[in-house]
């Protein structure tokens, strides 16, 4: 297990993933019924952008670091909960911190909601435990995320989301994402699933998404962001499949994806994709 998210925290891929995560959490907050957010590959919870790892790659400067200038008002309205969550985490943990998914989830929990953070790396799981186990609403599990994905759903609340954000260190992880996601949706058809993927091997991602499109009996969205031309050797593009998306998300993504593609483009190339998959909603 060599992957360390501290080197990548706040990069363009985190911006897309975390913006969508916060929008989905805001949607869940609209009804009073409690929800559970399961983060199957949780990482450390939050990261210091002034720390050595973030400083070595400086990836955040081309992600979160490019969002300082405000966007037009209709885009800002969509970014507002994400910006507010980052500000709340900074208030709690320090001004140079960037939140990971557990910190963003924690900010969204009401007294009766639950967050479950799963992390397999022993040292990271220990850090997460220190950070989140005192809060009665959050629980840290030192477990394999793929096992957790199967065993923790459906949650007792029957309402909530699962974030699937593996490190893609081993070959075949894109294919595994597709098959495990389809299986998980079959087990919990009304759950909201967010599955993140890097786009290096474009054909492998397209095959995985086509498989999901055929297999899913539920509505889903493919949201991709390209900040440079596709390149098998470095991360220039990223995406998320969102199963059972909030009904407003496609329209929102039609606004924030082009804005992010333009703002985060590395040179003269920024692009996006927003496509419906699965059964119609
Ligand atoms: N979701 C986090 C966020 O948005 O802030 C980032 C997670 S990072 C991309 C992937 C994490 O999964 C790493 O912390 C890694 O140690 C952990 N990991 C790797 N293999 C795992 C497995 N089989 N089960 C659970 N966690 C795993």
Automatic annotation (TrEMBL):
Its EC number is 2.1.1.266. One of its GO terms (cellular component) is cytosol. The lineage of its organism: Bacteria, Pseudomonadati, Pseudomonadota, Alphaproteobacteria, Hyphomicrobiales. This is Ribosomal RNA large subunit methyltransferase J. SUPFAM superfamilies: S-adenosyl-L-methionine-dependent methyltransferases (SSF53335). Keywords: Methyltransferase, RNA-binding, rRNA processing, S-adenosyl-L-methionine, Transferase. It holds the Pfam family RsmJ. It comes from Methylobacterium oxalidis. It comes from the Bacteria. Monomer. The record marks 3 as: Interaction with substrate rRNA.
């Amino acid at each position: 297990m060599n992957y360390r998210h501290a080197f990548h925290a706040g990069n363009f891929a985190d911006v897309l993933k975390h913006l969508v995560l916060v929008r989905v959490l805001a949607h869940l907050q609209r009804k009073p019924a409690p929800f559970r957010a399961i983060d199957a590959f949780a990482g450390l919870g939050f990261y210091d952008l002034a720390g050595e790892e973030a400083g070595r790659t400086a990836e955040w400067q081309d992600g979160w670091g490019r969002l300082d200038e405000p966007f037009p008002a209709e885009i800002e309205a969509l970014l507002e909960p994400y910006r507010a969550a980052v500000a709340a985490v900074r208030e709690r943990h320090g001004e140079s911190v960037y939140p990971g998914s557990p910190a963003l989830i924690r900010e969204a929990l009401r007294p009766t909601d639950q967050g479950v953070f799963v992390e397999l790396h022993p040292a990271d799981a220990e850090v997460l435990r220190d950070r989140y186990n005192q809060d009665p609403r959050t629980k840290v599990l030192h477990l394999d995320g793929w096992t957790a994905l199967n065993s923790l759903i459906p949650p007792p609340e029957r309402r909530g989301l699962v974030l699937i954000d593996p490190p893609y260190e081993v070959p075949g992880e894109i294919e595994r994402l597709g098959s495990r996601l389809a299986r998980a949706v079959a087990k919990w058809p009304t759950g909201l699933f967010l599955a993140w993927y890097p786009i290096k091997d474009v054909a492998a991602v397209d095959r995985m998404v086509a498989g999901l499109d055929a297999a899913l009996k539920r509505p889903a969205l493919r949201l991709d962001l390209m900040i440079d031309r596709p390149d098998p050797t470095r991360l220039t593009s990223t995406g998320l499949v969102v199963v059972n998306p909030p009904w407003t998300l496609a329209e929102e993504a039609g606004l924030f994806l082009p804005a992010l593609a333009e703002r985060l483009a590395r040179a003269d190339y920024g692009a996006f994709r927003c496509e419906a998959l699965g059964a119609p909603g």
